[in-house]
Design goal:
Oligomer: single chain
CATH class of the largest domain: Alpha Beta
Shape: globular
Strand order of the largest sheet: 3-8-7-4
CATH topology of the largest domain: Rossmann fold
Strand content: 15-25%
Bound molecules: zinc ion
Amino acid sequence: MSKGSLALLNLIFPDDCRVCGETLQDFARVPVCANCLAEPSPFVAEYFCVSCKTPFVNQAPLDEQGQCALCRLGLKGFDTVYTYGSYEGTLQRLVHLFKYDKMDPLARYFGPLLAKALPRETTFDVIVPMPLHWWKRWQRGFNQAELLANEVGRRWNVPVRNAARRRKNTSAQAGLTNAKRRENVAGAFAVNGRLDGKHVLLVDDVMTTGATASACARALKRAGAARVTLLTLARTDRRMSVELDSLGAHA
Ligand SMILES: [Zn+2]
Ligand SMILES: [Zn+2]
């Protein structure tokens, strides 16, 4: 069904909000009520790494500079992370609608959230969306990270370049331990062209362990990037008192 006829159908049969189930009063581009769209609150953590912003239940895993062990050892690949919210509740539901129910107009709504997460004074040379494997991109019809990257690009007036691509399909990350995830994504990315001396803003929808983003950031640095800042809409919050992963333990 075309977008036009779908919109017409919505006019005749008002939809229910796909997040809370309330009947929609207004006709919108996405079947989500204003309350649900307004709800996602920013990520908050009392103790977090100053670089990767990983939250912890206490200060123990952080050094005097406020960095976690992985950042201290330079193992993250990226230099800084900014995230809007926690991947749960309404925001999680919205991301699911965006990705799996192919509601790409939601990108417009996510734009302001990304803009809130990224400090206004942050400068970078190029925005690179986290690539999808071509097969997945074809199945979905769009790369959600690219739509988000475009939102940031427009606001910051910085070009978006699809510089990174996936060499293999590493979709089966769920259920793997952190160490296995890292193994799974090693060598998964290739970069087209050079990024010498560039500060790259890598954009993705959700950060889970950061293993995928790390692998992609490392590939960007191999292509010459001087600095990689990661910006995601949401991140999972598996708050720990020690950084189990850095000790080689299974998280
Ligand atoms: Zn709702
Ligand atoms: Zn860190």
